[in-house]
Amino acid sequence: MFEESISTTQIAAELRVSEKSVREWRRRWVAGGTEALASAGPGGSDCKLSADQRKELAEMLDEGPRAHGWEDARWTLARVAEVIERRFAVGYTLRGVSYLLHRMGYSQQVPTRRAVERDPEAIASWHRGRWPSVRG
Questions:
Q1: Which residue, 92, 63, 67, 71, is CA-closest to 80?
Q2: pLDDT tens digits, one per residue of 8-56
Q3: Cβ(83)–Cβ(57) below 8 Å
Q4: Where are the domains of the chain?
Q5: Structural element, H or E, at residue 94
């Protein structure tokens, strides 16, 4: 398209990208030809933990939170981040922990039991009385 002198606006519309991206691509193409447009690979940073550290983390997670000082038996992102910080001296944000766990094959789990405090009558009453107004 650049060789055919098609306008930036037309290229952006046809490829469904921003005109800013097309202008950047055109600058690269002018400077280095078609080779300069090749992908640089996936974005983002590399994992902060090595493969061995990730394996060790998986083993620690399998031991459960009680083995690492918490009273209840559920992992949270904050707890996993704290374990990583304590063991490997590497800081992760909660979102970073989420991405890491997903890459390691972990997924969000739903509790198998319902809370003891659950009140089915209150829930039904809420659905009958309040839900219609919330729903709009």
A1: 92
A2: 999 999 999 999 999 999 999 999 999 999 988 777 777 899 999 999 9
A3: yes
A4: 1-43, 51-103
A5: helix 94-103
